[in-house]
Amino acid sequence: MYIIEQGKIPANYSGDIPRFLEDLTARMRQLGPQLMKVRERPVVKDTIGNIPGGYTVVRVHFNNPGFWLLHCHFIFHTDVGMVLVLKIGERYQMREGSGSFIATSSSTRTSGWFWF
Ligand SMILES: [Cu+2]
């Protein structure tokens, strides 16, 4: 995941997040293919910090079919929508599960829970 743009939502939006997202989306669409060249040597990230009242635009190259969870690390923020599931690929491209949960990456197992 590469950061395309980060910032604070300008005060002139007065909390009108839908209007801000509409304008941001329009601006990103205008940039189109240039988005691939925003940064010559982007840093690859899997976790991104966001300032309060801020936003981040990322570019992601998905090459692993499955369901991916994007979430805020403040679990109570899921209540306000800071979580989403992305379906990448089609069902036939996804691997069958083994029937048991497999820990990946650097997760630490504590009493059956996995913390990422
Ligand atoms: Cu959050």
TrEMBL record:
Protein name, per record: Iron transport multicopper oxidase FET5-like
Record has Plastid as a keyword: no
UniProt keywords, alphabetically: Metal-binding
One of the record's GO molecular function terms: oxidoreductase activity
Transmembrane segments: none
Residue span, Plastocyanin-like domain: 40-88
Taxonomic source organism: Diaphorina citri
Signal peptide start and end residues: none
